[in-house]
Amino acid sequence: MAGLNQTPSGERVHIGFFGRRNAGKSSVVNAVTGQEVAVVSDVKGTTTDPVTKSMEILPLGPVVVIDTPGFDDSGSLGELRVERTRRILEKTDIAVLIVDSTEGMKQCDLELLALFDERKLPYVIVMNKSDLGEKAGEKNAAAWGVISGDGKESGFKAPVVKTSAVTGEGIEELKNTIAALKPAEKEIPLVSDKIKEGDIVLLVVPIDKAAPKGRLILPQQQTIRDIIDAGASAVVVRDSELAETLERLGPSARPALVITDSQVFGKVDKIVPPEIPLTSFSILMARHKGLLEEAVRGIAAIKKLKDGDKVLIAEGCTHHRQCGDIGRDKIPKWISDFTGKDIQFEMTSGGGYPSDLTDYALVVHCGGCMLNEREVGYRVKSASVQSVPITNYGTLIAHVHGILARSIGIFPELEYNRDEGDEQ
Ligand SMILES: Nc1nc2c(ncn2[C@@H]2O[C@H](COP(=O)(O)OP(=O)(O)OP(=O)(O)O)[C@@H](O)[C@H]2O)c(=O)[nH]1
Ligand SMILES: [Mg+2]
To answer: Which amino acid residue places its CA nearest to atom 13 of ligand 1?
Structure first.
């Protein structure tokens, strides 16, 4: 679990190391990280499950390194192998293909490159075991039509780096190459673009069994950080102290914005005067993850639900008890009460997001605080190409309580048709 001082895993660049068995994936992972992340042995198929590790690597900063099982694993069926790799690719931001240069590139290496290309992932090809001498290696990459750098001929285009996990040759170069592939930060902030230096932002954080006394949950921590980085002040209160705090601040120190936990949105909505903008942590997180626009569009589907329709409730992780309670109990109840229909609910959590969504009339996703942008993006896109409406917890909660319009009021750029929106 991420502590207060750690970059949450959803915010880190995920680097996946792929290749055939024995190519030296685990050895290169250990060399790049300078740690014993994964077990190395000359037995083919030593790594049987993906190994994931969060760390800081210079010059990359906070990353998640993923060591993977060999792609040519003959112990599992071909289909399964590809499916397993696809799942890892869903959360990969940069891919590294490790090739044993004494054997050269093989057909399954090309299959991997095709998978990287299909997902438009930046990648680097590593010709490993360079200490064992020049053999078929580099010639082989060229022979397969793989061109180093920005070559103009057709074929795969990627930087090629020669390494030895044994002598350390090329490891620095590999790190620099990976850093250069790091996707430009096109990040949408949580809230800092909606406030000014000197603003007071009032945060409402109820104490409940999920965010008990003594701790703040991840979206709350991140929002506070974002507010103070913008040079504004964050005033944090429980819902029980909200009215009194607003009064004390008075007109001279009127908050520019109130951000509340979704669970007490209804109560807070009544307390905060209409001239003060109000939103929720989950709405902010959804926008930060690039999910809000689609979620606001998807919410219209709730009106169209019929008896017998199936709704998928999808969670990004398995360990946030608050989200678990909301997903398992509250959302089904809210949807049933709101629609008055007999709906069937199914729930998934963690990595288990079905690739076929066509059975569902609606997908309701969590805020995705533990997922990176690429994975959230993939999930949204996967729903939209299958024409399945997708929304998220925060948007749905706001909608069924008739407060969506107010909670997205600070985002006038969002297309939101009020006729389609809240029903009081
Ligand atoms: N000489 C030399 N041996 C290497 C190098 N990199 C890895 N090896 C050896 O190659 C063998 C396989 O290394 P691993 O790192 O376990 O390979 P892997 O790709 O993770 O293999 P699986 O987990 O089985 O898929 C081990 O005996 C390593 O010591 C290298 O650069 N040079
Ligand atoms: Mg391995």
So the answer is: 24
